[in-house]
Design brief:
By secondary structure, the chain is mainly alpha-helical. It has helices spanning about 15-30, 50-60, 60-80, 85-105, 115-145, 150-160, 165-200, and strands at about 1-5, 35, 45, 110-115.
């Protein structure tokens, strides 16, 4: 199965309108994030990156990154922040890593085959997992220690995953697998929805 990819440039009225719509949809989805039962304080399962992935498949990584940026700006404006903007910054950076990984693979060809899509989503998921690990280790976890001691966070996490002993193992065995599962979920939803929408909307 082959799909036409990247036929239109992003900086056209049609593309900008669609990217704006996808940004709003992403923002709305961001409001319905689901807190996980494993790490309820800092890991949340939400699919707000799916519209950005659709935009990436349609117009390339620049579109996906722009949608990620607009989504988080809208959240800051409408809902505010409980993390001083750190959470939104992390969300943007991790989401952008996914879109760049996906876009760089897929934009190498005008024809998007299933094989290329799979490779693109694998690279995107790995990119998101690696960047997410770095962001959590150096930024998000230190931030949450302002509200809860790291020892307590590790102890609570170890109740679910026994091999967690410190911050490094928390990132390695807790956060990274979570992001990989999230990446797989996003990949499946994004490609299925992209194929549905491209028939109804001329990307």
């Amino acid at each position: 199965m082959k799909t036409e990819f990247g036929k239109k440039k992003i900086f056209t009225t049609h593309a900008l309108v669609l990217c704006s719509m996808l940004s709003v949809i992403a923002f709305i989805l961001m409001l319905f994030e689901t807190i996980t039962g494993i790490f309820p304080f800092f890991l949340k399962l939400e699919v707000s990156d799916v519209p950005a992935a659709i935009g990436t498949l349609a117009y390339g990584p620049v579109a996906g990154v722009i949608i990620e940026l607009l989504k988080n700006i809208l959240k800051l404006i409408v809902k505010g922040t409980t993390t001083g903007g750190i959470g939104e910054l992390a969300n943007f950076i991790v989401g952008a890593a996914f879109m760049i990984g996906l876009g760089l693979v897929c934009t190498k060809s005008k024809t998007l085959t299933i094989k290329r899509v799979i490779v693109g989503f694998v690279v995107a998921t790995i990119s998101m997992a690696v960047v997410g690990a770095v962001m959590n280790y150096f930024i998000m976890l230190p931030f949450y220690t302002k509200f809860m001691p790291m020892d307590q966070i590790i102890e609570m996490s170890a109740e679910t995953i026994k091999v967690i002993k410190d911050k490094f193992t928390l990132v390695l065995y807790g956060i990274t697998p979570f992001n990989i599962v999230k990446g797989i979920l996003m990949s499946v939803l994004s490609y299925l929805l992209y194929n549905v929408l491209k028939r109804a909307i001329k990307f």
